[in-house]
Amino acid sequence: MYKYSAVCGLLGGLRRNSFKGKEVTDIESQTPEAVRILLKEYLKSDYPREEKVNYIERALYVSLIRKAGKLLKFLDAKTKEVIKILVSEFDIFNLKLLIRRIQLNTDDGADMFYWGFTHLAFKDRDPCSIKNIEELKSYLRKKPILCQIFNKSFENFKFHRDIFYFDFFLDGEYLDLLRYISSNLDYNSRNLMENFVSIRVLTYALRLKFFQGRDSDEIKVLLGRRRFLNKDFLSRIMAVSSVGEAIAIIEKDPLFSKLNAGLSLNFEDDLGNIFYKQFLEKRGVNFFSPYPYLTFYLSQRYLIEKLVFIVNEQFK
Fold first, then answer.
1. What is the average pLDDT value for the chain, to the nearest integer?
2. Whole-angstrom distance, CA of residue 316 vs CA of residue 312
3. Are 218 and 160 in contact (CB under 8 A)?
4. I need a labelling partner for 229 at 20 to 30 A (CA). Which of 93, 201, 216, 239 fits?
5. What is the DSSP secondary structure assignment for residue 109, as one 8-state letter?
6. How confident is the model at residue 269 (pLDDT cuts 50, 70, 90)?
7. In the 8-state DSSP scheme, what is residue 76?
8. pTM for this structure?
9. Which residues contact residue 139 at a Cβ distance below 8 angstroms, ignoring those fewer than 6 apart?
10. 20 with 265: CB under 8 angstroms?
């Protein structure tokens, strides 16, 4: 009971000091300077010295990783494993960056790695120290799930000889893993995860188009293979000319409404209402669902990505 009370209190504190849906939406109408002030207030000493979107994005996600790390100290084994798999997307990013450094023989990107955090694969080793594929494979053997994702994606890379396809298959394997773990969760948590993954695929498509400059038809072909994705809706957001317009279309879709209802993006309720009415009153004090912790992590993950899209438009 003590441990449960502690994590409830911690989650309440983390929610109060995190982004809210309305707050992020309001940023769209503010000046770049106002956005800069908000980010500096949020990130404090972590605000990057070089004001580029990729550095701001990294700083925002480092903040999320740290918050997730605080939660992981208190969670039961099953919930902890789910959150750890969610956070492993930053290990996926590290693999993308490492492949570029190794295959292109460059030292670029050294300050973009996510490492030194307890629950990431590179918690005790600077990825910059890995100089070739065999050394990387050897290191990943200690992380079976990540190692499997890497090996499957690297085989595709060897076939296509294009780093983009390595990235694409890495991301695909990660999203498939999220869908797989969601199948073992309770009903509410499973629906939340599945809705999140569906929205995540759409925002991934926006990154490919607006950040990487990939062709819309190519994106539709690649992502259209996923059975759970609405291909007509994907075509619709690929037809727009700005990421802001695409986000607006996504957030008006019924699928997003379901996700929003589950995440409580605006955090209107206080902690007592969230936990008492939704969990303790209905299920009893021994109901240890991952749901409240997923609502926190997934809401922040979505809002940070939306904020990055907005910052990318405003800081051009």
1. 86
2. 6
3. no
4. 93
5. T
6. very low
7. -
8. 0.90
9. 125, 130
10. yes
In the block, tokens 């570029």 appear at 100
Tell me phi and psi for residue 34, to 5 degrees.
-65, -40
Please say whether the beta carbons of 110 and 128 come within 8 A. yes
Q: Among the residues of 207-290, which ranges form H helices? A: 216-223, 231-238, 243-251, 254-263, 271-275, 281-283
Tokens of 185: 């969760």
User: What residue spans define the domains of the chain?
Assistant: 88-160
Give per-residue pLDDT as tens, 155-188. Answer: 887 777 888 989 999 999 999 999 999 988 888 8
Predicted local distance difference test score (pLDDT) of residue 187: 86
Residue 83 CB-density burial (10 A; 0-12 exposed, 13-18 middle, 19+ buried): buried
Nearest to 117 by CA among 80, 81, 66: 66
Q: What is the pLDDT of residue 159?
A: 76
Long-range contacts of 195-198 (CB under 8 A, 24+ apart): 195/255, 195/258, 195/259, 195/262, 196/259, 196/298, 196/301, 196/302, 197/228, 198/228, 198/229, 198/255
